[in-house]
Each structure stands twice: as structure tokens, then as C-alpha cells.
Amino acid sequence: MEIGKGQMKIFYTANHQLHSPEFEVFNGEQVPHSEIPSRVENILATLREEEYELTPVESVTNEQELLNILTTIHDPNYISWLQSTHPTEAIYPSVFNFLNQQLLHGHLSIQWGNFCTDMFTPLLPNTWTVALTTAQTMYAAGQEILNGQPNVTVIGRPPGHHAGRSRIGGYCYLNNAAIAAQLLSEKGTVAILDVDYHHGNGTQDIFYDRADVLTCSIHADPRRKFPYFAGLENETGVRAGKKSNKNFPLAAEITNEQYQPVLEEAIHWISSHKPNFLIISLGLDTHESDPIADFKLTTEYYQKMARTLQQLNLPTLVVLEGGYSTEAIGRNMVSFLKGFS
Ligand code: OKP
Ligand code: ZN
Q1: Beta bridge partners of 320
Q2: Residues enclosing ligand 1, CB less than 6 A?
Q3: What is the pLDDT of residue 4?
Q4: Tell me: the pLDDT tens digits for 288-311?
Q5: Could you tell me the pTM of the whole model?
Q6: Radius of gyration of the CA atoms of the chain, in A
Q7: E strands of 80-175, at which residues?
Q8: Among 157, 161, 197, 166, which residue's Cα sits nearest to residue 179?
Q9: 285 CA distance to ligand 2 centroid (A)?
């Protein structure tokens, strides 16, 4: 057994393949969707080859508790609409709501535009079922942490960090990291560090006015990359959450050597707030081979990244966000997990 395997419990969603978007719309054109089942299948196959023990979460066993958490972190109107709407085909938004009214009427492509911010995030017949299973997996992972397991990883889809309180997008529907953060926040202060290539705007939005959940994101500068409308340094939180958000926007083609000091600065910022729990939004789209991103991190670097995160010496819950090289994603995940000891 590899060092660290016993210290790390790994959960995965058993039904993720039921959510399989075919295309996204960019500038009026249909392009193949990036957030596809083979991402997670590649990770699971590689982990099995490496003899990691994997625990599937098959069904939703805490639905009421989950809904309580989901309606705390998200707009209850969004959650009840998502739960009760049963599309029979893929729904893409046609018109976006730009005010705060909750007028829900018309074709589902109009209703979806009430909650959705882009044309990359279709609502599919099984989206709710799969997203809720991933939510259950996050709940189970959070409970493991509360029961004293030092490190837990969740391999699931769809990702969550672009899902905000009442506006979602970027392939995300329910904010997975926020689900665990909300659960853990009942027992202490939580820090969420988002190392996905893209800014974690949804996570930032949900906790922007709260001091009990710190949010920190290292990402491509939004002046040139998705989500475009958030992720600058001057977004630091409001009201009770003043100074509880920290953003590190970065230039293109960042290397291991350039990334490492930024990661250390992020860790320093987190440790100065003395949190009790750490959640890592792990996007593997920072890898040099990623087809939609342009950082230059190497497979070996993820091990160093994990070791660096361990300097915080906190119970740690890792959740998969992005990562679109369906060849390299499994190796990158194994490299990251090897950094835990
Ligand atoms: C989700 B996650 C490429 C456009 C991509 C959406 C990116 C969503 C990233 N055709 N735009 O943070 O990895
Ligand atoms: Zn990403």
C-alpha cells in the first residue's frame, strides 16, 4: 500500500454518467461539451489500477438534511424549481433574467434563463438526480471529516464552484464545496481554497458576506478567461464577510515555479485566519495538457501542491472541479493524492 492511502478516504458518485451534456453554445455555434463522463471514468480507472480503495455513493439517504443545506446556500426558489422540473430533453437558456424578479413562466428555455448565466450549462433530464447524488457524496464526506477522518476526497460530477446563490453556470448546478462547507461550518471555521484554473465565482458569491467560511481562489485572470465578471483582487467580501475572500488572478502559461509562491501566499492568508477545516476545490484544468486552459503545471507538480497544502495541518476535504484532458486527468489525480501522507 502506498503511503497515505489509509489516511485518505475516497468517495465517488456511482450514477454520474446519467448527466452527459453533448454540446455547449459559443457565439451561436454548437461545440462539443467538455464536462463529460469520461473525465471521471478516467480518474476511477487510474485509481483502480493504483489499487486505491473507492467508496461509491449510490443513493440519496439524507434528502431532507440535504435540502436544508441546499436551501441555505442557494436560493430556495432555484432549488425547488430544479427539483420539481422534469425536462424530457436538453434545455438551453434563450433569454437571461437581468433583474432580481423571480418571474417563472413560459418555455423551459425561458425559465432556465432565470437561474442560468451562460449557454455552456444545459439542464438535462437527469441533471437533478446526478447533482443531488454528488451533493449526498459531499454530505457523506463532510460527515467523515466530523467523525475524525483526516482527509477525504470526492470524485464527482457535475462540478460546483461556478454555482452561486441564485445564478449558476460554467457546467455547475449545485455548489458541491459549499455543501460540505455549510455542514462543517456548524462545528468551526472553514476555509475553501479553489485551485481550479477558473475563478470560483459561485463559491465566492455564496459566502461573500460570511466570516465563518473563508474563500480563496487562484485562477486565470477573468479579464481574459471565464467567468469574466468576477475574480479580481479587489473582491474581498462584504459586511460580516469583509476581508474573508481573497483572489489571485494570474497571467497565461503559469509554470510550477511561478505557481508555487502564489500557493504559499494563499496558504499564508488562510492560516492567518486560523480555520478548523480545509476544503480544496481541485480543478485539474491547470495542467499543461488541458484543452480549454493555458497554465503549464505538470503532473509531478500536483504531488508538491498537495504536500504544500498539508502544511496547513487541517482536516481536509478535496472535491474535484474541472480538468478536461480525459487522458491526463487520472494521472494528475493520483499524483495529487500521493502528496498526502
Ligand atoms: C468550468 B470549471 C470553451 C468555453 C469554456 C466555460 C468554462 C467552464 C469551466 N469552449 N467556458 O471551472 O472547470
Ligand atoms: Zn475550471
Answers
A1: 282
A2: 24, 26, 31, 120, 159, 162, 170-171, 196, 198, 226, 283, 285, 292, 321-322
A3: 53
A4: 999 999 999 999 999 999 999 999
A5: 0.98
A6: 18
A7: 151-155
A8: 161
A9: 6
